[in-house]
Specification:
Length: 173
């Protein structure tokens, strides 16, 4: 998948996150859904903070400050990138899950703008970056800049499914 098509897919997914902010009831946004689990605010916190951190990894790869590595991806990462999704209940690393906050809608909107802006700034340098300059992902191993962008795309779409599950819980399903 080209950088341009990845960027376009990601932009469309982020537009969906933004659209949902307008339709999720304020009374539900920070509430724990029936049956437990993360609130909408916690999902937005996780996805936006993790993706912003992933953009830092892209920047480091593009600047050549990553680890130089010519090894292929491990089998779990190869599978995820091949099918373009995580297993349905893929758990975030404990270190990442511990950083989740229950943010409000306004902060979510601001972080979405920040994320989109950073993607716009970094997309042009990804193709120019070395495929051997890599930064370690907590679960997937060493990734180069393009792989990090692909991860952001997969990760962002994955959490749309989680938002759908939260919505069903609030509707009694």
């Amino acid at each position: 998948m080209s950088i341009a098509s990845l960027k376009k897919t990601l932009e469309n997914t982020l537009m969906e996150y933004r659209r949902r902010l307008d339709v999720i009831p304020d009374s539900e946004f920070n509430a724990t859904p029936p049956g437990g689990g993360w609130s909408y605010g916690e999902v937005y916190s996780h996805i936006l903070q993790a993706n912003l951190a992933s953009l830092v990894a892209i920047e480091r790869c593009a600047n050549g400050t990553g680890k130089i590595d010519d090894k292929r991806l491990g089998l779990p990462a190869q599978f995820i990138f091949l099918v373009g999704s995580f297993p349905i209940k893929f758990k975030a690393p404990e270190k990442i899950a511990a950083q989740v906050n229950n943010i409000g809608k306004e902060e979510a909107r601001n972080l979405l703008v920040k994320l989109k802006t950073r993607i716009e700034q970094l997309a042009p340098v990804i193709n120019k970056s070395s495929t051997f300059s890599k930064i370690k992902h907590p679960s997937l191993g060493l990734l180069n800049a393009k792989q990090w962008l692909r991860f952001i795309d997969i990760h962002t779409r994955h959490h749309l499914k989680q938002l759908n599950r939260i919505e069903k819980k609030f509707k009694g399903g």
